[in-house]
Amino acid sequence: MRAQVTRRAGIVGGGSIGIAFAVVFARAGWQVRLFDPAAERRELAPAEILQRLEELTRFGLLEEAANVVAARVEIVATLDAAAANADLVQECAPEREEIKRELFAQLDRAAPAYAILASASSFLATSRFIDDTMPGRGRCLVAHPGNPPYLIPVVEIVPAPFTDDGAVTRAIDLYTDAGLKPVRVMRELEGFVFNRLQGALLREAYCLVRDGVASVDDIDTVVREALGLRWSVIGPFETADLNTRGGIASHAQKMGPSYARMGAERGQHDPWTPELVAEVTAARRSALPLDQWEARVAWRDRALMKLAQYRKESVSNDS
After folding, report:
1. What class of enzyme is it (predicted)?
2. Number of H helices, E strands in the chain
């Protein structure tokens, strides 16, 4: 959908995430300038952007012609040119503190005072690479996307302790305008939310292979054909809430001790205290009163049926 007010994005880094962000912003009607220090990446970027847009068109996920959207992306030869007049500068450089520190110092000088300076960092918090003496550090934050963001729309907004609240609000508004779903992470921590959740599953998966419990393929099957199916329509808290009559409080009472023992096997001691369960329960009951529980379970089942139908039809069409 075209933005009513034309926004301008500067992208620093022409790798896979930088290319993906160019698609996101251009698809939303933004004017985009993309810079990469490597001439080869600058030369390859236009074709890669167009190819992704054409794939979106093929699946009915683009409202305009691919070449029209691609025309909104300008490849520029300098960082200053990418940052000029930008509402938002998206840094997509390698995950190295020294690189990000140097880039943000340059961006703070080059970008207009109103621009948000955001890093696509997957693990590094803003405080790790922003100098205390940087004049514009109050507008700096992490905006960590799902990959690729034009298909996985969540973007984690992670402010540093020194990030201005107004910058956080503006960043959330800008990413929403670009068609993404911002999630505010309340404090800095390595890996943020996305990779901590993903990491928890990966750590256990590696342990299960190491301990001879299951094969790599079988673990992928469990996630793909079970956990992943549910999580594509509801999250882990709602899954637990809907899996046990009486909701998540009943689930915690019945299943909590087993989960605690499984954690203890891995040397982990993070008990679901009564206070923590009460906090989670209150959030779920605010979202779904218990008198609506059965209706939501029926909705979940219909959503899974639609997904099963789509997968069945996809297999038939591919064969």
Report:
1. oxidoreductase
2. 13, 8
